[in-house]
Amino acid sequence: MKAVVLLSGGLDSTVCMSVAGAAGYELYPISFSYGQRHNREIECAKKIAAYYGVKKHLLIRTNMDAIGGSALTADIDVPAGDENRTDIPVTYVPARNLIFLSYALGYAEVLDADKIYIGVNALDYSGYPDCRPEFIERFQELANYATKAAVQDGKMIKVETPLISLTKAGIIKLGMENKAPLHLTTSCYRGGDKACGTCDSCLLRLRGFKEAGYEDPIEYEGLTTFR
Fold this sequence. Notes:
Elements: E1 2-6, H1 11-22, E2 26-33, H2 40-52, E3 58-61, H3 96-111, E4 115-117, H4 133-146, H5 148-151, E5 158-160, H6 168-177, H7 200-212
Parallel strand pairs: 1-2, 1-4, 2-3, 4-5
């Protein structure tokens, strides 16, 4: 059995990959250099893929920075974290998961893979529309009509979202149970040698580790109230 895993180099995608591995799938991670403001997550993804000893780690290069519209792909400052935010933050990358899943679907068809694993989460997340169950359900419906495998051979490639209903603490606990290499991951939107500890993603990660009862194994700039 084969599974394509969307691997960003972050905490959630790494735990998601550990779930696919624990389920007995041969892992085929796919990562994207899409014009994001830093390459740290790609370097982390390479280390995580090596940790799992995968046969192939596919790196797709595309230029979503040409579209812009996000603090991760354009000359827009990454804002300080705000856990009370209710609107979709400027770190949202337009249509990113739609594009990534489309690549993953094509790759899964070529590999004759059964599953695509993606670490989207609908609880402790930043309000991104493409992390919701509704989005995944619609993409699955589309995928069932989009491939030769489905139309001609009757093989449906299933999109798995094992983290979608977990809290960040729950994701961390699951990763610890699966012995996922959380020390190799990054979550910081700013991408420095050390995590900033102040962006939305860092704050969410730090709170998750605190609530899970573990110390975050990566380094942060200065001190935070969560460590």
